[in-house]
Amino acid sequence: MNLLEVRNLNMQYASPLGLVNAVDDISFDLSKGQAIGIVGESGSGKTSMSLALMRLLPKNATGYSGSIRLDGLETMTLSNDDFRRQVRWNKMSMVFQGAINSLNPVIRVGDQIAEPLSTVSAMNNKARRDRVINLLDLVGLPTDIGQRYPHELSGGMKQRVMIAMALVLEPQLVILDEPTSALDVSVQAQIMNLLKDLKRNLGISFIFITHDIALASDLCDLIAVMYAGEIADLSSSEDIFYTPKHPYSI
Predict the structure, then answer these.
(1) Which of 154, 191, 208, 241 is 20 to 30 A from 98, comparing alpha carbons?
(2) Separation in Å, CA 7 to CA 4, 57, 65, 186, 229
(3) In three state form, how does the secondary structure of the chain look?
(4) pLDDT tens string 65-91
(5) How far is the CA of 80 from the CAs of 32, 54, 57, 224, in angstroms?
(6) Strand pairing partners for 13?
(7) What's the rounded Cα separation, in Å, for the pair 196 and 234?
(8) Backbone angles phi, psi at 247, to 5 degrees
(9) Which residue numbers in the chain have pLDDT < 50?
(10) What is the spatial distance between Cα 248 and Cα 244, in angstroms, rounded to a whole number?
(11) Sign of CA pseudo-dihedral 90, 94, 99, 103
(12) CA dihedral sign of residues 62, 66, 72, 77
């Protein structure tokens, strides 16, 4: 059964020189428990597509259209308030590129993880603290990390914190925007193993954005190659290497 069905998704950026097709008629499906890798060069539209899915549009975005059906819910017909309450972080969350820029430097890590729980009125302070402790354990961090500030953590620890933040409301789908790009090889391998464990044990679906097609194939069931805002090729992680459908995939 498909968790995510994207049909004819479009988004443009307005610029002094005219409109730029950042997301150009994109369509794909993702089943529950699957991961899809989105690969391509810088400027190909990978991050723009993820922002369109999350409805985190910059001020110069225009021409936002298409169909995004998440677990049977057509998100494009929701108001911004309904999307925020029903979808963002509840059903679909995102780990943004560059953990060091995504964490508030003056707020303790545990408080940042717990922040989305403030929308869940039934949770008291103890329940929120317990949830943070469980999440830190889930991503392989000691519980005292919650009392630290971001500058006290290594790059790999920051990335694990970002993953914990994305999981706090138990979404079915997590978008990962180049989550290992700033990490050395050994830490990169640890994060990839963590993602594979979450996919296997919790049945979470992932959209994994990266420049590294070999890295994507380690986690993902499907690979989509983006070029100039379009999906130029979409195949299984095996077929994309042996039977590419587009010259750009080679």
Answers:
(1) 241
(2) 10, 18, 9, 38, 14
(3) CEEEEEEEEEEEEEECCEEEEEEEEEEEEEECCCEEEEECCCCCCHHHHHHHHHCCCCCCEEEEEEEEEECCEEHHHCCHHHHHHHCECCCEEEECCCHHHHCCCCCCHHHHHHHHHHHCCCCCHHHHHHHHHHHHHHCCCCHHHHHCCHHHCCHHHHHHHHHHHHHCCCCCEEEEECCCCCCCHHHHHHHHHHHHHHHHHHCCEEEEEECCHHHHHHHCCEEEEEECCEEEEEEECCHHHHCCCCHHHC
(4) 999 999 999 999 999 999 999 999 999
(5) 25, 11, 11, 28
(6) 20, 61
(7) 21
(8) -55, -30
(9) none
(10) 9
(11) negative
(12) positive
CB atoms within 10 A of CB 214: 10
| Lookup: tokens for 221 | 């069931």
Write down the residue that tokens 């070999």 correspond to. Answer: 214
Q: Is-contact 145 179, C-beta < 8 A?
A: no
Determine the Cα–Cα distance for residues 23 and 214; give it in Å rounded to an integer. 24
Kindly list the strands in the beta sheet with 222-227, ordered across the sheet, starting from the edge strand earlier in the chain.
92-95, 173-177, 205-210, 35-39, 222-227, 230-236
Burial profile 197-211: b = 16 or more Cβ within 10 angstroms, e = fewer: ebbeeeebbbbbbbe
Residue 35: predicted pLDDT: 97
Cβ atoms 37, 219 nearer than 8 A:
yes
φ, ψ for residue 169 (rounded to 5)? -105, 20
SS3 letters across 113-144: HHHHHHHCCCCCHHHHHHHHHHHHHHCCCCHH
Nearest to 109 by CA among 140, 145, 141: 145
Distance (Å, rounded) from C-alpha 59 to C-alpha 15?
A: 11
One-letter identity of residue 71: D
Compute φ and ψ for 111, nearest 5 degrees.
Answer: -70, -35
